[in-house]
Design goal:
- There is one protein chain.
- The protein has 4 helices and 6 strands.
- With 167 residues, the chain is α+β, with helices and mostly antiparallel strands.
- It has a domain of 90 residues: Protein of unknown function (DUF541), domain 2 (Alpha-Beta Plaits, 2-Layer Sandwich), CATH 3.30.70.
- A 4-stranded antiparallel β-sheet has the order 2-3-1-4, covered by helices on one side. Strands 5-6 form a two-stranded antiparallel sheet.
- The chain is elongated and about 90 Å long.
- The relative contact order is 0.21.
- The mean pLDDT is 85.
Length: 167
Amino acid sequence: MRGTPLWMMAAVVLGAAAGAQTIQVDKNNRTIAVTANDKASALADTASVTVGFQIYAPDAATAYSQGSTLSNAILDALKKAGVADKAVESQDQKLSYTEFPENDKSTPAQRAQKQFTLSQSWTVHSVAADAGKVLHVAIEAGANNSGNIDWALRKVCATGRCEAASG
């Protein structure tokens, strides 16, 4: 043992210890070992489409008036496209003084026309196949801050039976 390197002795001891950790699966110790792997995938059947806009105006009253007109135009267009009122969920409406970054290259006249910012957004729930149509209709009506789509699976179908997915 005198000439045996330390690492070799450690390997022998660890090898013996690892062998002692082996679980014997048989009827005497009543142990069951199960290993399984699987994967499931499905196409989304619903979509939540974010649509909205952001506008600038020289004063709060003008921003609110223009925003109201644009908001109504977007909602009317969605309704005409067949989107139900209950499928449209208001997310945000904000009127604020515009903060210009330090490196803004706007002229004083341009800044004067953008003193206030109004933004508004909605989430529109639809079947997955209609997500593109919802987005297109909203953008055509003036929604200039749109595009996020969350896809989801609401129904799970197996053996001809469909059930609502949990979660």
